[in-house]
């Protein structure tokens, strides 16, 4: 247990320090949201209608792009080999790394949501709903994206290929995240049903992600 | 003769060379019967002659999912049993599966034009087949992106299995998304409501297409084995030249 706690603490520290790049995700999120009015026009009514979808898409892309680094830096300096050889099960180590990554790169996205909601003319309820669904849904994005990150490090290929492979897997999260936020804002369908399915998706990916990532690391790194 | 005996590629090549002509002949015969029956099947009272598209469309759609199942079993073979031919099977199946999926989408949109008045509709079933097509293309891109076949095989196996778990979830969520956005406007075609004059040709076509897949898959696996042999011979030749 202490080994995992130490791993989480180490990863968060590295991510927050110079060269860690965790906060670049937030900057990217902000940039995507700022680009949207240029694409659809500065119509506040339209923006507030599209708001939840824009925020979800931005968060999806931001968390995907930061995931590239999840294993890459550790692979370059050799600490990934140490983690694979240690007595802690690799699945748990992967889960710990993903958790640390979510705390360092996913949570800031959610904290930034209210400010970005202001830019998109979302009211209090809508902003709260989007932030809440992001809080429930971004773990699923991190944990499924981790599979792509593990494949990227074993294949020495990142970027576009991994995005193409991982994005279709994140469609369910996007569907239920946007559905729950829309239900909270406009009704008439209930907020509870899509929101609990969103939580279920996060829990499922919490199980599948570490196993698949550990499997591809085990088979790929030798 | 068990599966492990086939682990020797030479034995597999010899056996498949003997089986392949029979399989091809059976495919041709069944396809001929199926096509004849489909062509002579009566017109639907609502859809007219366009219902004949169904005899091509439905087997394609069925195989688009069946091939992913075959690839998942092959991926288990790669990861769990390390069967040397499993990754050949998985790699050879992906383009065939993508082709069946594309044909299902294509015939579906040809059928949709006279029936729904549009080539494309963001209907739940169409959307999830389109996502399946994207996943096939992603897998093929992964196979092409990595030079070393065994390294690519393990990565592709992990991804195929994750996809196999995810496909039902995607299907379910797309269903949800669609009912949320628009009422179901698509005709439903349950198996039990299908008349016998349609059902029998459809089943014959389904079996014929499955045989077609098996034939193409075996041939593609043979090609892949030979391609790998050529590759290793070329590498040997290159290293001899260097020495």
UniProtKB/TrEMBL annotation, chain A:
GO terms for cellular component: plasma membrane. It comes from the Bacteria. It is a multi-pass membrane protein. Keywords: Cell inner membrane, Cell membrane, Cytochrome c-type biogenesis, Membrane, Transmembrane, Transmembrane helix, Transport. GO terms for molecular function: heme transmembrane transporter activity. InterPro entries: Cyt_c_biogenesis_CcmB, Cyt_c_CcmB_bac. It holds the Pfam family CcmB. GO terms for biological process: cytochrome c biosynthetic process; cytochrome complex assembly. The chain crosses the membrane at residues 21-41, 53-71, 92-120, 126-153, 160-185, 191-217. It is found in: Cell inner membrane. Its main location: membrane. Belongs to the CcmB/CycW/HelB family. Required for the export of heme to the periplasm for the biogenesis of c-type cytochromes. This is Heme exporter protein B. It comes from Bradyrhizobium rifense. The gene is ccmB.
TrEMBL record, chain B:
It is found in: Cell inner membrane; Membrane. The keyword Protein transport does not apply. It is a multi-pass membrane protein. Keywords: Cell inner membrane, Cell membrane, Cytochrome c-type biogenesis, Membrane, Transmembrane, Transmembrane helix, Transport. It holds the Pfam family Cytochrom_C_asm. It comes from the Bacteria. The keyword Manganese does not apply. Required for the export of heme to the periplasm for the biogenesis of c-type cytochromes. This is Heme exporter protein C. It comes from Bradyrhizobium rifense.
């Amino acid at each position: 247990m202490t080994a995992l706690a130490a791993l989480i603490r180490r990863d968060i520290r590295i991510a927050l320090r110079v060269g860690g790049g965790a906060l670049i995700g937030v900057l990217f999120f902000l940039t995507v949201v700022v680009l949207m009015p240029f694409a659809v026009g500065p119509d506040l009514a339209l923006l507030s209608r599209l708001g939840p979808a824009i925020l979800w898409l931005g968060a999806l892309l931001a968390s995907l792009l930061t995931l590239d680094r999840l294993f890459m830096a550790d692979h370059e300096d050799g600490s990934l080999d140490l983690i694979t050889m240690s007595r802690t099960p690799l699945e748990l180590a992967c889960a710990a790394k993903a958790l640390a990554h979510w705390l360092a790169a996913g949570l800031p996205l959610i904290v930034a949501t209210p400010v970005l909601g202001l830019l998109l003319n979302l009211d209090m309820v809508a902003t709260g709903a989007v932030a809440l669904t992001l809080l429930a849904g971004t773990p699923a994005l991190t944990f499924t994206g981790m599979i792509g990150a593990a494949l990227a490090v074993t294949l020495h290929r990142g970027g576009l290929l991994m995005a193409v492979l991982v994005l279709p897997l994140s469609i369910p999260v996007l569907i239920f995240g946007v559905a729950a936020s829309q239900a909270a804002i406009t009704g008439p369908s209930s907020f509870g049903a899509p929101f609990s399915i969103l939580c279920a998706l996060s829990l499922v990916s919490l199980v599948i992600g570490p196993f698949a990532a550990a499997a591809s690391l085990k088979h790929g790194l030798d | 003769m068990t599966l492990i005996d086939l682990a020797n590629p030479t034995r597999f090549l010899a056996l498949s060379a003997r089986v392949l002509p029979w399989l091809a002949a059976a495919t041709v015969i069944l396809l001929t019967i199926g096509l004849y029956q489909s062509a002579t099947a009566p017109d639907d009272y609502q859809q007219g002659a366009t219902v004949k598209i169904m005899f091509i469309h439905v087997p394609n759609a069925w195989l688009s999912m069946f091939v992913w199942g075959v690839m998942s079993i092959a991926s288990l073979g790669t990861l769990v049993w390390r069967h040397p031919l499993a990754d050949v099977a998985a790699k050879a199946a992906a383009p065939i599966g993508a082709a069946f999926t594309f044909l299902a989408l294509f015939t579906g949109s040809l059928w949709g034009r006279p029936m729904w008045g549009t080539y494309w509709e963001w209907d739940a079933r169409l959307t999830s087949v389109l996502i399946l097509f994207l996943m096939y293309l992603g897998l093929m891109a992964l196979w092409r992106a990595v030079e070393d076949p065994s390294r690519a095989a393990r990565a592709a196996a992990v991804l195929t299995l994750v996809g196999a778990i995810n496909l039902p979830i995607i299907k379910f969520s797309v269903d949800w998304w669609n009912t949320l956005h628009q009422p179901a406007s698509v005709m439903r075609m349950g198996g039990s409501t299908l008349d016998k004059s349609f059902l029998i040709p459809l089943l014959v076509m389904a079996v014929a297409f499955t045989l077609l897949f098996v034939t193409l898959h075996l041939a593609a696996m043979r090609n892949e084995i030979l391609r790998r042999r050529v590759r290793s011979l070329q590498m040997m030749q290159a290293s001899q030249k260097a020495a």
